[in-house]
Here is the input.
Amino acid sequence: MTHQPRIDTSPHVSDEVRKTTCYMCACRCGINVHIKDGKVAYIEGNRDHPVNRGVLCAKGSAGIMQVNAPSRLRAPLKRVGPRGSGEFEEISWDEALQIATDWLAPIRRNDPSKLAFFTGRDQSQSFTSFWAQNFGTPNYAAHGGFCSVNMAAAGIYTMGGAFWEFGQPDWEHTKLFMLFGVAEDHDSNPIKMGIGRIKARGARVIGVNPIRSGYNAVADDWVGITPGTDGLFILSLIHELMRAGKIDLDYLARYTNAPVLVNADSASSEHGLFLRDTEGKPLVIDRNTGRPTAFDKPGVRPDLNATHEADGITHRPVMHLMAERYLDPQYAPEAVAGRCGITPDKIRRIAAEIARVAFDEAITLDREWTDFRGETHKTMTGRPVSFHAMRGISAHSNGFQTCRALHVLQILLGTVEVPGGFRFKPPYPKPAHAHPTPHCHSRPDSPLDGPHLGFVRGPEDLALREDGSPARIDKAFTWENPMSSHGLMHMVISNAHAGDPYRIDTLFLYMANMSWNSSMNTRGVIEMLTDTDQNGDYVIPRIIYSDAYSSEMVAYADLILPDTTYLERHDCISLLDRPICEAEAAADAIRWPVIEPDRDVRGFQTVLIQLANKLKLPGFTDADGGAKYIDYADYIVNHERKPGIGPLAGFRGDGSEVGRGEPNPGQLDRYIENGGFFVSHIPDAAQYYKPWNTAYQDWAVGMGIYDAPQPYVFDLYVEPMRRFQLAAEGHGERQPPDHLRDRIRRTLDPLPIWYPPFEDDSIDTDEFPVHALTQRPMAMYHSWGTQNAWLRQIHGQNPLYLPTKLWRQHGFAEGDWARVTSAHGEITVPVAHMAALNENTVWTWNAIGKRKGAWALSNDAPEVTRGFLLNHLIHELLPPRGDGLRWSNSDPVTGQAAWFDLRVRIEKAPAPKESQPTFAPFKSPVGQGPDHLEWKVGK
Here is the structure.
């Protein structure tokens, strides 16, 4: 007889399960938070949630340690030592709010532009922008200007949306999936799930990235491209597809501006703009009549080939201009391969594979639909090639045009909004003309004249004062970067310090680690934050900062408003902002306090409402000064952006209304009962062809996404860009400075182009021959997870990875260190060998390196001693070119920071005690975490 020990295979995990939304990255997955003895015992994925369907990554599970991190701030703080010392005293919330009010009230009363309010990677931008608009400052934006505005703006200007939060591949039908510049931190679970699904049924994945990690590691084919040349590679693919006739002509004629006639009169002030009818609608040649006709007239069949003769001038359609440009031999594989680091044969093979899948393996769904011209189609035909791209191709000085090129490639293939291709997520598609233009007119004691951010249509929409100077402290929407739809957060501190274009009084930041990993020129920014004038006063007089943790930025603020962690507050993931929608459905979600804070902290959004009430801001208070909202939960439920439209689309009115309806006092309870989210599925007949599908347009109106149907065609040729070129050529009332004319003419081309990254033209590339990049790891997101006790075990330090060629060339061995030098600075760091890497590129994980005194880490923590940042090598300005100007290290179209243009040289160096440079430790307002840290709930 044998004896087996008794094992409890179903231990009591929790007393209660509370369903909410994860915040460990931007996927916004649904989670089940198991509560035991009033504490978080376990976090798992919510199987009913539309985003992750139960899948949860290491970050999500490690949320337990995020809400128990020793680095959490405990109470409001007032600086008592010099900036950067970390010397604070704890104060009450009454005192903190009064200090903030005493600083902000005179600014609003006299000159609201003296406040610069910028938020980092938060997910409540419709709310924070509403606060800033009612305060009256023109100086508001979020983190997008240093993250991925090129991708978003290029997509919206081209087709009304872009990747990730704007749309997704048709995972159910796609047969070929290409990724460009995608690190594994963005949209992590949905992409992992999608790749698993398509590979299970034999679809192929191609990864285009200098670094083969994460998604690229599981790709069937890897293109180890030279950084900054993605656009050239894409245009070469377009060249090959056009040359082979593998483009969807019917799709281009029906759903894009390819057949629209372009003014060819070089003497006209409208040269290069569209020919229009008396109602202002772009003209095409109707194949039925042979005459110019409005593009959207019922029954019109636009002709891609026909031209229009008028007054001796031949006006040609956009398609002619595209064929003329991209069939040029300069885009042939032999012409671009060397620069891209790819063989000509590989470019041809990839182009041929794209063409074969798109056209030979096309799929048809028996699903009837009616388009915006009134034509009914019995089926939906799809080309099952899909793409996804992110920061890797965006964070270059040629990133906007590169992103445009990729969107144009999709459109030429006819793979957008069709079965098997790329599909928009509500509230997209939404073209540029459906968005507001930026507003900047600030008056004392008044709200701003409209929303801060938007999409310019031409020079008339630039954010300029009457004297032509920038209206915004970050110089967004100026001739230097006219289409900067997300603002330029990375330029705020340097501009404020320089007093260019003017001085500010208070810098108010939320969740933005601008004194460390979120800034170019880290040491320089630290000096700017601490610099004093001849009177001994700080050049930036006041800094207010809100964070949940003792980050590096905390030490440089004068007043700290401590935020909660994500399980201790209300949040709204809204259709007005960045919702959790899928291509098949509109969806939004909430977070709610599944646990109560054990510290004297408040959710930042609630703090803003309390400040708004003390400042008597319109939009937040009644005419008699009474508060409209007591906290953020109250705002979420009762705020209406316009009648019937609020932050949440679900359970409105009596609880049964969707999209539009009166505020429902029980709305948050209904969300909680439903797992923290709401979903409204798109009807089958409206699932595809959304920009042109009358069924979708009608559904979107009912949901409150549109006020009226607004079908449109894709903009292969972006006319607003041509308007800026015309200004640079001397046309129009608003004229650019002379030193910018040539750059505007060259870079704001209405058809996608490629030009070398600006840093290549600013330095001696023989002296700095190596490209240097960062990526964010799958186990962490920005810097939020790097103090997490569980996640630190995965990435506690970060070597600089070198390809085999450079490893051997310099004689490196395991355990060696390297001195890495750029035109701006120098670091000394540990190195490691990586074979699957572009042969002329080095890289490291972003934001692992930490400053002594921050994040409750010990002074000998691996993040402090062996972790490092590449930021020390990067400057917000390019090296001097000898023309007397210092040009911005950014994209000239949007102003996006060109993080990935960095060029360096590498040499072996003696091993120091710690990664260099080192910074003196500052005092920690939360002290140092314990040497032994564990989390155990119950017995």
Summary: The first helix runs from residue 58 to 61. The chain has a mean pLDDT of 95. The longest strand covers residues 826-833. Residues 289 and 300 are 9 Å apart (CA to CA).
